[in-house]
Amino acid sequence: MGEVVLAVDGLGRERSGSMTRFELGEGAGRRFFEIERAGAELEMRYGTCDTPPTVARRTFASEEIAQTTLEALVGQKLRRGYLAFDALPAQTRLERLREAGGASLEIDAGSHRARLVYGTDLVGTDFENVLRRLLSDRELGVDRLAVTLGFCTDFEGVGRALARLGGASHVLRSLTLCTFDEIETFRATVARIPERLAAFDQLTSLQLQAGQLSATQFELPRLRKLQIRAAGLGRETVRAVAAARWDSLASLGLWLGSPRLGCDAALGDFATLFAGQGLPNLRHLSLRSVPFADELCEALAEAPLLRQLESLDLSFGTISSRGALKLVAHRSSFSHLARLVLDGNEIEGASDLALEELSREVVLGEQRPATGDPREVEHLAPMYEGDGYLTLQNLA
């Protein structure tokens, strides 16, 4: 089962700096040497650029001795003709990065955007190294990154790579981590988002997707957009989102999913969120695939948060005619909305309920046949790839 840990050292230690890279020669067979100190330990990676690296670690009696040894090893490499990778021309660094990433890496240097696709079909790619080099290149300046894991559940490698970046991780403005894959693999993927996500304090956009997601705390003061999509979203994560102070957040989206797949959130977990505490600038709220959607409709109608919203998306949930009638009964609470999305629920006779009059624009789309059993619809899950592309898979 895969697990993502953001900004946490894969070896459980604080790192004193980022890994420094040196290269010798030209062509695919050129040699490289990388070194980094973590406390009193040195980690080294070396070999040729067309083969998997050799990794070696040495522990010393003190940090001072480790640092002295690091400087001696670097001096030795420079005397042998190695060149610091950071000193190479920007175009050369970009070409070599694309060579290392192969088909898994897409870079748009002009817009500072990059995308990595990682899967078992890319076993020849040193994924962790490519990701670290991509984000630590200040001149390249990639600040929008999407990492898509296909055909695997290895979020752990992403976390290790991000953890090694040190200050370079702070340049990120937009980060997307998601899986799209065969249904069974998606369901097995668990992403754990720890407190140290705060290390990415420059983020303005964060999108996360996995079969199950778990978070206990968020501290991202500049974040303007947060999207969390899961086949089963836990109440711990909902409470963490509700408890956070979001001074800049304008758009929030949560995809709850199925209790059978890990969603144990209940209506009460949204109380703080609906009170509008810590969300002074929220204008767009999306609560999708909610298994208790009828009850949600009434709670939202009375929520202080609703008054400040411009759009509300309740699509792909379990809203029945009962829930729709609750919306109609509180039409004055929703009339200020520019857009209300109710697509993909199971509202019988939707066209006869005057739902179009609830707000300036109401999107009904296609409604599913009413079954009277939420389990028939709550198993829909998003299979998401990159930015703005969404398809659904039935996990029944």
Structure in words:
The protein is built from ten helices and 19 strands. It has a domain at 20-87: q64v53_bacfr protein fold. It has helices at residues 63-79, 90-101, 127-136, 156-163, 183-188, 235-243, 271-274, 293-301, 321-329, 331-334, and strands at residues 20-24, 31-38, 41-48, 54-59, 83-84, 105-108, 113-118, 144-149, 174-179, 190-193, 205-215, 225-233, 251-255, 284-288, 311-313, 339-341, 362-363, 380-384, 390-394. By secondary structure, the protein is of the alpha/beta class. The strands form three sheets. Strands 6, 7, 8, 9, 10, 11, 12, 13, 14, 15, 16 and 17 form a twelve-stranded mixed sheet that branches. A five-stranded antiparallel sheet has the order 4-3-2-1-5, covered by helices on one side. A two-stranded antiparallel sheet has the order 18-19.
Short description:
It contains 10 helices and 19 strands. A hairpin with a 5-residue loop joins strand 18 (380-384) and strand 19.
Task: Itemize the secondary structure elements and their pairings.
Elements: E1 20-24, E2 31-38, E3 41-48, E4 54-59, H1 63-79, E5 83-84, H2 90-101, E6 105-108, E7 113-118, H3 127-136, E8 144-149, H4 156-163, E9 174-179, H5 183-188, E10 190-193, E11 205-215, E12 225-233, H6 235-243, E13 251-255, H7 271-274, E14 284-288, H8 293-301, E15 311-313, H9 321-329, H10 331-334, E16 339-341, E17 362-363, E18 380-384, E19 390-394
Parallel strand pairs: 7-8, 8-9, 9-11, 10-11, 11-12, 12-13, 13-14, 14-15, 15-16, 16-17
Antiparallel strand pairs: 1-2, 1-5, 2-3, 3-4, 6-7, 18-19
Helix pairs in contact: 3-4, 8-9
